Amino acid sequence: MRMSNIAKQIAPGLALQKVDERIMTLNVGPQHPGSGHMRIIVQIDGDKIVACDPDPGYVHRGEEKMAEYRNYIQNIPHLERPVIHDSCNILYPYCLATEEILHIEVPERAKYVRVIAAELNRCVYTLYWLAIYGIFLGHSTMFMWPTGDRELLIDLLEKMTGARVTHAYFVPGGVRNDLPANFEDVCLRQVDYFEKRIRAYADIFYDNPILISRTRDAGTLSRQDAVRLGTTGSVLRASGVDYDIRKKEPYDCYDSLDFETSVLKSGDAYARSKVPWLDMLESCRIIRDALSKMPQSGSVRVKLKPNPKGDEMTSYKRVESGRGTLGCYVVSDGKPEPYRVKMSVGSFRNLISLPYLLKGEKLGNMPAVYWSLNYWPVEADR
Amino acid sequence: MSTIAPKFKFSEFVKSLIDNIFWIIVIATLVGLPLIMIALFYVDLPVIDGTLVTPFLALTWLSHPEVALPLVKSFMTSDMFRIMAFPGFGFAALMAAGTIFIERKMLAKMQLRVGPFYCGKIEGILQLMGDGLKLISKEIIIPAKADKPLFIAAPLLFVGAAAAFVALIPVAPGWVVADVDVGLLAVFAVIGFFPIITVLSAWSANSKFPFIGGIRALYQMVSFEIPLILSCLGVVILTGTLNLSEIAASQSVVPWIVFMPIGAIVFFICMLAELERIPFDLPEAESEIVAGWLTEFSGMMYGLVQLGSYVKLYAFSALFVLLFLGGWSGPEFWPPLEQELLEDGQTIGPISLQFPGLPLFSQEFFSAVIWFVLKTMGVMFFVLLPRGVFPRIRIDMLLQIGWYKLITLAFVNIFVALGLVYAGVIGPGGMF
């Protein structure tokens, strides 16, 4: 009796419970083609979902605890592991917070290089997410096209950083190395072509009548609910809230760049799937603008002492990642290692809305609504 | 870009063909013939008409066609040949294999990939054989709580039902396994088996995802069979027969798709749903219910279901061709052979060629089969095409399309057919 109570408190879906004979419990995941590294416990009545309990935590790696045993520089390669497709953005708040603790002023050119790398990386992540969204809806062409076009940007990032996915490019005090020669021309050419390619996605995916009829009015999240449930990023902007950290609290050089946030009003799965695509078009604009405004020469990195020690202070910085607001809270106690590193990730905050959205939906809508939350299981578990 | 596919070169193609032929000849002569000789050493051979019949007489027959051709002809007119090889299952399985290859290559081109490429040297043409060998060599796993006899029987029944469907399809005038007077009704009787088999296999697997998939398949097939039958009714009204050969023969001037485009469209959409192709692949929707009613099948059981579903695809495309596209009718490809050439042979320099017993088939037959295959391939292309363009739809949308829109359109089609008959356009005194 006591055990079952404990089980109910820890994971309500795991507890034995007496249910109606009509209701069937499905374990979607973790070994299921439509789940990712997590489990969704779904209870269905015929084709209708009566209850849904997301169960993350299968890929918890203790990144935050690991960060307490390494110094500020050694933390860089492992803190990016939760989202290797968006590794620049997940390191961004850590670097900003560490710079505040170590009192470092970043060179002007490094700020622009960081923004370019972060926007390229956001597109890489969004394409990967979009590819999986396509295959979740049974659209195999939409799986292949973004995975193919992703190579363009990965090539660019490889030229910049030397690695295809795990870049470890941002360091406290700037970026690891300067841009290669002739990078601006190559980048402009690739980004122009890339923009032409992603505009073509509208023809096959976003204007597809079957896709619209399937995702329109599926899992609608109202403006009030979106704010109340604490969602961020594309989920919040799809519900009509104009909230983007790049505009609200500009970091590095975002205040000097010319761009707009993409906001849609309807708040359904269609809007949630379209906002990241609109974001990618804006990213192209940001990259072009940053390339034109970037100082042509100068240092990109402040030399640090080996094993730098910070003051006894705390710092909290946040950026707009591919999945929404990504915050990093660093506590220093004057030692070379941080006392505590805590990340607040958009994935987990968006997942909270899943049980509310899926209740009363058809089982066929489950992948469409689930993946439209812009959720990355590995990042949520950290 | 890591790997870029080399360009197709004709010289490479010919070279690889010659390579393959060379190896076949080498292996056949060095391994095959000695094996046959060793085997024959222990076998008592029959004596017919005073001559010892050995397999090596086949070599003699090659140089004396007047002996061999009647044998071949008599074999070709036998029921065995019809069921196993030509209009029956062998031909259908060949078409199905070709369809799988074309589907994979076509989908790859649409998705900016190369598709199967390395197996078999020529554009991955042996990939299917490799996949088949892999499936055969895999272990067949049967769930512990499954209803074993039903679970094992389901794939076999599926292929059997698909083969029964193929048996009713005429390919050329007189070339059909079972020439039934109520052919169209027989087709629907066979189609009616598929939902039963699906539900049986889903139930016998004793697992949640196959169960949901089976129920979905049942809903989908039952609700789309009604507009499917209704859309064929227009053709039956115009021709006044249920015999598929007669329906095909009645369209020698104008195919019925000209008069009944609505019926053809309804039939095509229902066909996609019956075949569980995207956008109607709900029973196998992998992101929702793993693989639907196929989830628990492994190894060659899965392979058999796949074979059955592609044979079904061929049969449905062929049915569309027979009902709406004029079957095998079409202009002849080349003039028939001259009579004196057949009787006297032809002399080229010192050699004179004789053609006793030829031709095996009439020219009309060749032309009919080629037209039929071309039209069927065309329909198959349009069945495969939506896979690269559309996402999957939802079950409530599917049922709404089936019960409201398609049935209404099918009735519109019936009234178009009735109007054509009453207006005297078709029938006695009409144009056709």
Question: Can you describe this structure in just a few lines?
Answer:
The complex is a heterodimer of chains A (382) and B (432). With 382 residues, chain A is of the alpha+beta class. Chain A has helices spanning 2-10, 63-66, 75-79, 87-102, 108-136, 140-161, 183-206, 209-215, 223-228, 233-238, 245-248, 269-293, 346-351, 354-358, 366-372, 377-381, and strands at 23-28, 39-45, 48-55, 170-171, 174-175, 314-321, 324-331, 340-344.
Explained architecture:
Chain A has 382 residues and is an alpha+beta fold. Chain A has two domains: 2-55, no CATH class; 63-350 and 364-381, Cytochrome-c3 Hydrogenase, chain B (Orthogonal Bundle). Chain A has 16 helices and eight strands. Chain A has helices at residues 2-10, 63-66, 75-79, 87-102, 108-136, 140-161, 183-206, 209-215, 223-228, 233-238, 245-248, 269-293, 346-351, 354-358, 366-372, 377-381, and strands at 23-28, 39-45, 48-55, 170-171, 174-175, 314-321, 324-331, 340-344. In chain A, the strands form three sheets. In chain A, strands 1-2-3 form a three-stranded antiparallel β-sheet. Chain B has helices at residues 10-41, 57-63, 65-76, 79-84, 89-110, 127-137, 148-167, 183-191, 193-205, 208-239, 244-249, 261-274, 286-289, 300-324, 339-344, 363-384, 395-422, and strands spanning 47-48, 51-52, 346-348, 351-353. In chain B, 62% of the residues lie in helices and 2% in strands. In chain B, the strands form two sheets. Chain B has a two-stranded antiparallel sheet. A two-stranded antiparallel sheet of chain B has the order 3-4. By secondary structure, chain B is mostly helical. In chain B, helix 12 (261-274) runs antiparallel to helix 14. The relative contact order of chain B is 0.11. Chain B has two domains: 100-132, no CATH class; 138-422, no CATH class. Chains A and B meet through helix 5, helix 6 and helix 8 of A and helix 10, helix 13 and helix 17 of B.
